[in-house]
Write a structure and sequence with these properties.
By secondary structure, the protein is an alpha+beta fold. The protein has ten helices and eight strands. A four-stranded antiparallel β-sheet has the order 1-2-6-3, with helices on both faces. A two-stranded antiparallel sheet has the order 4-5. Strands 7-8 form a two-stranded antiparallel ribbon.
């Protein structure tokens, strides 16, 4: 397995390896969006063809092409039901953890997680030493994410009050989240360093709350 070559194949599309794991005799590689994904996607045919699910279709084309060249399989969060256990896979890589908000946090992306798909490689490929010993939340003294949600819709105890969140997003006060991204995700210091384009966050918010 040529890990530098995979990084080079992903980089022009603003994608990167978020974690790897072994499962059932195969190797799974989780692929996520970096700060460069948005301009790459915006210049694609899917972004302007006015068809449904443009980002999912773009992800399937890009990752499908890479997999076809190597005779690998591609798996996507939108495939299902049944849906692949992406959350379980993510935590098994030792690069994702549950944050104090209940959402997953990644060692590089923080709360700005957008897993675009997984590559499944036959056999147990030697994994690079990229695992992190502990969650970045463990050394985050202020934990601003805990109090960032204007309506307290996120917590590690109740996880995620989706109806309350969507209700708020449909109010004038909620437009800040809709146009710039979730307050809680933006409050994370790791997310802030990840430098996601606000337009990308707004796109994800419109997909989550299209009304």
């Amino acid at each position: 397995m040529n890990w530098p070559q995979l990084d080079a194949d992903l980089a022009p599309h603003g994608l990167f390896v978020m974690g790897q794991l072994h499962e059932d005799g195969s190797t799974l590689i989780l692929i996520g969006a970096s700060s460069g994904m948005w301009p790459a996607f915006q210049s694609s045919a899917e972004a302007s063809d006015a068809q449904a699910d443009p980002l999912d279709r773009w992800s399937k084309r890009i990752l499908g092409t890479i997999c076809e060249a190597h005779h690998w399989d591609a798996i996507f969060p939108s495939d299902g039901p049944p849906y692949a256990p992406f959350i379980a896979w993510a935590t098994a890589t030792k690069r994702f953890w549950q944050s104090p908000t209940g959402m997953l946090i990644h060692d590089v992306a923080g709360l700005m997680i957008s897993i675009r798909g997984a590559l499944r490689i036959p056999g147990l490929v030697t994994l690079p030493n990229t695992t992190t010993a502990a969650s970045p939340c463990d050394t985050c003294a202020d934990q601003p994410c805990v109090s960032a949600c204007p309506i307290g819709a996120l917590s590690s105890e109740t996880f995620y009050d989706v109806p309350a969140c969507k209700g708020y997003l449909n109010t004038p006060d909620g437009q800040s989240c809709m146009t710039q991204g979730c307050h809680t995700r933006r409050a994370c210091p790791v997310s802030d360093a990840f430098n996601r384009d606000p337009a990308q966050s707004a796109f994800h918010m419109r997909s989550f709350n299209p009304s």
